[in-house]
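Obj.: predict assembly geometry.
Materials: sequence records (below).
Method: joint structure prediction, all chains together.
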Amino acid sequence: MNSLLELKTAMRDERTEVKPAKRLGTNVSFDRDYGDTVGEVTASNARMVCRDVNVFYGPKQAIHGVNLDIGRNEVIALIGPSGCGKSTFIRCLNRMNDTIVGCRVTGSIQLDGQDIYDPQMDVVPLRAQIGMVFQKPNPFPKSIYENVAYGPRIHGLTQNKAELEEVVENSLRRAGLWDEVKDSLDQPGTSLSGGQQQRLCIARTIAVNPEVILMDEPCSALDPIATARIEQLIDELRMQFTIAIVTHSMQQAARVSQRTAYFHLGKLIEVGETAQVFTNPRHQLTEDYITGRFG
Amino acid sequence: MDKPTLLLLILVLTTAGYYFGRKRSLDIVSGKVQELHSLPSYYGYYLAMWVGVPTLLLLLIWLGFEGAVLSRLVVADLPGELQGDSGERAALLINEIRNTMAGAGSGSGDPSIQAAANHYRHLQAVSDWLLSLGVIALAALGGWFGHRQIEVEQRARNKVEKGTMVFLIACSTIAIFTTVGIVLSVVFESVLFFQKVPVTDFLFGLRWSPQMAIRADQVGSSGAFGAVPLFTGTLLISFIAMVVAVPIGLMSAIYLAEYASPRVRTVAKPLLEILAGVPTVVYGFFAALTVAPYIRDLGQSLGLDVSSESALAAGLVMGVMIIPFVSSLSDDFINAVPQSLRDGAYALGATQSETIRQVIIPAALPGIVGGILLAVSRAIGETMIVVMAAGLSANLTANPLAAVTTVTTQIVTLLVGDQEFDSPKTLAAFALGLVLFLVTLMLNIAALMIVRKYREQYE
Amino acid sequence: MSVPREGHIVRRYDGELSHLHYLVLEMGALALTQVKDARDALCDRDLTLAQRVIAREKDVDACELRADSEIVQLIALRTPVGSDLRLVFAVSKSITDLERVGDEAARIANLGLQLLGSEGADPNPVLLHDIASMGALAVGQLENALRVVDRWDRNLAEDLLEAHEELDFEFQAAFRRLVTFIMQDPRNIGFAVNIVLIIKAFERIGEHAQNLAEYVLYQIAGRDIRHRVEP
Ligand SMILES: Nc1ncnc2c1ncn2[C@@H]1O[C@H](COP(=O)(O)OP(=O)(O)OP(=O)(O)O)[C@@H](O)[C@H]1O
Ligand SMILES: [Mg+2]
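Observations (raw structure tokens):
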């Protein structure tokens, strides 16, 4: 019978502790060291650790002091309004921003304890370790087989033709595309449908056996069936890889991810268990965004 | 009124038509523009069309026929002994009369010619008066009619749009008919040539010496019109040019598109394109005076026998000339390869050169091939450099150090100077032109088709 | 805080959510009338009123059906998340509870008919005394709960939850009194059982009212506080 009292004290505590109008909810626990982000930015079994990441496009700052861990065998969803820097952030994770003239990244991003922005770091093997799937399917203008074989080939992952064929078949199988294309491996990759192309791109990415897979809106051009296939695939890949996915579909984020990070104007506003973020977001901005009150 | 004044008058009348049309349309609805079917300016254009088009047409037709009609009238009035019966003589007479009219020194003192000139002058004045009257009458008629047509419900906009379309069609028709005309004239002359020299001799003959004997008993009295040496010469030089232009052009395109910083690019690309703007004559004497001697000296120092005019010199310089064709087009097509493909390759861990070699070039290949084909047709059609640097001797050889000649060069030499237009020598130029035209046409069509196929891939 | 909070980009969504809120209030008002009428029927020995309560039970059920279908539709079309999701969930739970309240009211009316409608002996007025006080408490709590739902008022909800023991105590006391009555005069046993059932029903109504307050708190705070009350 003293629980009611407990409840009341908890609520009062929360009222004093949380800045009004900024944070909702109760028992907010966050580490002051990690800036203003609400929620737990650290992960117990972190594979990638980002600390105080800032990204500049010329004089313009696109990402402001983001701290975030990405855990092993975890799917983390990055959500947020258009232009908030999700793509920019995810492209930092495998140094794809290097290809953009005038883009500068500060702070530290570690993969398994190694700083990937270390000047000694070679981006070629790094990108083999951290694969990326893009918003628009972008198969190379080559045959389906060559598309998948491309990565293993440039990294010399296979000794002979038979091995390469095995890798190709395996990757296509895991991407759930094998049965559809096994008789037409020499057809151009561009002749496939959009959903098939996207799965081909995923097969191409997993063919080099990366440790982390980054996906930037991988389903934005696909129909619900193809989307469901890819979501299923992500769920299966999670056993083996660490996955970060940018998506504009709240439902998709809720379905595929274990953790969700909400970005707003280049800042990481809130991170948390996906279930919590979608039922009980702690930050007003997150709440407004996911419930469609934004703007 | 003379014709320039008349033209000015027509313009003034047309402008007036515009203002009256506009005003009239506004008057009908007493200023309430919304009630009109079209904007007032359309009524203005409409009326201007009614004034301008018929009068201009009349002017054009008049200009077209005036000379002929007047001449005929004057000649018909000449005394019988001057008229003669051949058409040529009449033309000479007219010339004479015109000269006299202009007061030129060559005017003969012949009184009947003098009289004819006066007659001509008189007729000319009458014609001008008639024309002026016609123009003014037509303008008034058109203006009155168009003015009457303007009503609230009148669809002036649609009619003006239609008029614009007709005008544009007329313009493009001119370009098309010109091309057709050129082709037809070449074809007719070629047919004449092939009546004198069998087609097979021309296409498959191995000896080219188009000199025709003036007297029948001269040595080598009949010319030889085997075009094969010319075409092999053309091919040889084009081939050398492509050997120079394709690698250099492609590499510089790759550098510009993939490696160069934006600053370098903005400077280097226009610089490269300037190469295309240098007059070919300049390339020609550069080839003849700088490159050819250099090659000859170099060859001699290596113990080779190099003629002072060589296919190599012409080919090299021509190659330099067409570099921008290859590089500029290839650059555009490499740039057109979507960034997403590059991203895809980089994300797999490909290096920049791997990406370029294995992804970008294959993706841009159709476009690049199209560009190269355009450059080839340019090389084949090129004349000036070859005239100056490769010589005129029609050797059937594959040796780049020998002097060769090309189709275009021969056309030039055949037509330079006084010519009889019925000798095979002159007509051969048309036949060569026809074949050359067909070859470049096919190359162009092939290039266009490849380029179009490429476009479909990414849109 | 006024809930449902407005400001969705799709403005119709705002309307649909506030309509759900309205449905709860409407159904709450109906349930409250039922409870009040059932109590009055007992206190005033008004059998026709009791009959009317029983007849109106199906209106409450219809109200529940309507609300349920609207909730299902809203979930299907809008897939609410965050506070909207909690609102829809709270509304859905509230509807269920209110329907139970309606059931309890009907049961009270039924029991009243049995109690008062039988020929022969009339129950001792002292026995009916507990019904009046329990009824007043239950109606009071339900009224407060509906006020909470109406204004989405957190403090009011907390106060209501704090008062949850009152009805319990009252029920225990009444129960003890009834037991003494039975022991004094075993002939009262028939009436007493009926009356126990009636006050039990009132007690249940009070609990449903508490639930309503809990849902509101859940919606506002995002924390499930049910069952934390029990040790
Ligand atoms: N190459 C670039 N150069 C300059 N500014 C850029 C560049 N790319 C992105 N930005 C800027 O950085 C900010 C973040 O862009 P980003 O593409 O990361 O947004 P996003 O969250 O991925 O948006 P979307 O959901 O629309 O994909 C934007 O304000 C954008 O204008
Ligand atoms: Mg993006």
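Conclusions so far: DSSP finds seven helices and no strands in chain C.
To do: check interface contacts against the pulldown list.
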